[in-house]
Amino acid sequence: MAYYMTQHSSNHSNITLPLLIDYVDALLPSLTTQVGATSSQPNDNAEVLWVLQDKDAQLAIGSQLNSHVANQSHSSSTADMQKLQISTLSKLFHQPVPERYTLACFWLPTLSLELLQQYIPLLMRYRDLYAAHVLIALDDTVDLKAYGFTPFDVLNEQPLEDKVINKAKSASSDSATLWQFNLYDYKQLPNWLNADYWANPENWGKNRW
What tens digit of pLDDT does each residue of 106-120 get? Predict the structure, then answer.
């Protein structure tokens, strides 16, 4: 079945890289807790995967991401170094054994629609299997609703300090529309899947089964 990505008409504020980095910092603690609460296995997976368009983007942005994580660790006496991995679309696409992550963040504001089509299977794999939460920043002419992602305004989703917001808005940076998918809240649990509704509990102890 063929899917088509077209321009979406909903208004959502654009996001810059500095604002997205700060949003990831604010989001990650709650995600780590959520993943730990829903998994019976220890959370030994790497926390954050940043995916950039190509090697040029990795050279330009990779050092900025690593420096930010290092600064965050040094500024808090109780915080551990955030487990961070940086990759490119091509490298990730050809990775034979993918890892699992708490958060996969794709920063692709200049990726063309034609090239993006080649990587849709990759996005689907991380949406369904390899990340508990996925963020994808793309040109605002691209619509990912057909793939289960939802666009949203970071400033309305997560409380951030005013100085962070003002700094991010004024930064000279590419901007993009942000899409998200959360494995643990994308669908509400129906009543019939709740254990309280199984096997007619009102008859427990009354009848012989």
Answer: 999 999 999 999 999
DSSP H or E segment with residue 93: helix 89-93
Q: Report how many domains make up the chain.
A: 1
pTM: 0.73
- Classify residue 202: in a domain, yes or no: no
Domain annotation covers residue 155: yes
Q: What are the tens digits of pLDDT across the range 139-148?
A: 989 999 999 9
Residue 114 counted as domain residue = yes
- The H-or-E segment that residue 50 falls in is strand 46-52
Encoded amino acid at 118, one letter:
Q
Beta pairing partners, 108: 138
Quote the domain boundaries for residue 69.
15-35+45-186
Locus of tokens 């958060």: 103
Domain contains 137: yes
- In one-letter notation, the amino acid at residue 100 is R
Q: How far is CA 167 from CA 15, 152, 159, in A?
A: 12, 20, 15
The enclosing H or E element of 105 equals strand 101-108
Long-range contacts of 118-126 (CB under 8 A, 24+ apart): 119/89, 119/93, 120/3, 120/147, 122/89, 122/92, 122/93, 123/147, 125/98, 126/98, 126/101
What distance in Å separates the CA atoms of residue 120 and residue 118, rounded to the nearest whole number? 6
Q: Is the dihedral of CA 150, 109, 17, 168 positive or negative?
A: negative
